[in-house]
Amino acid sequence: MKESENAKRKLPTGIDGLDAITYGGIPEFNQIIVAGGPGCGKTLLTFEILYNTAKKGIPCTYLTLEESQKNILENFKSAFPDLSDIDSLVESNKIVLAGNETASKVQTGTDSQSYAFSNVLSDIEEVVHMNNSKFLVIDSLSILKLMLGDLLIYRKSMFALRLNLKRLGVTSFLTMEMQHTTREAMSFGPEFFIFDGTIMMYQSIEENKRKYGLEILKMRGSNHSMSISPYEITDKGFRIFTISEI
What we know:
Blueprint: E1 10-11, H1 16-21, E2 26-27, E3 31-36, H2 42-55, E4 60-64, H3 69-79, H4 86-91, E5 95-98, H5 113-130, E6 135-139, H6 141-148, H7 151-168, E7 171-177, H8 191-194, E8 197-206, E9 209-219, E10 229-234, E11 237-240
Parallel strand pairs: 3-7, 3-8, 4-5, 4-6, 6-7
Antiparallel strand pairs: 1-2, 8-9, 9-10, 10-11
Helix pairs in contact: 5-7
């Protein structure tokens, strides 16, 4: 499938295989969900894309709603020891890390979830403005879904989040925890229909070994590969295999 002449400008991810199956990267200013079960590598994938983007001089923000900034940074450095300049990108403000205190502003079991979520949107805007970020990762939507509780409030909140990310002019990745790890068992909530793109990460067991696969389910404003691409996580980052490499 060839790229449309009317397609949006692309932001390369810096991961060769992913840029190949997205035909050059992610459409600029889109919001992309990266979803999968435990252990698929959602957080690592989005942080590596953010790292690659920051290395090009583009200011970035990583907002973690479940862990501290320190833990995210330590986990990434432990997983990818060959990427030795992460600290310098943080120190130079090319990467801003924001922690889980944002999620604590949403309280379940109250009548004011919508009001509380407006505080989350304000926090997102504040951290984006800290270094005039053009690229944002939110990890993860799952904690917001849990905290907001009511499905209608959650759906309205996701529409509000999408509109605010568009207004801020950032390209965004949002992680989403799935209950299952295989393609056959997947089911989709409203967020998958609201945001611009979906990248699914699967894992299965074959001959007592884990097998990983990545699929682009949708990408508004861009054509993309329709195949499931195997991937592995190495000390140097993700390696995503295209059909020609299998």
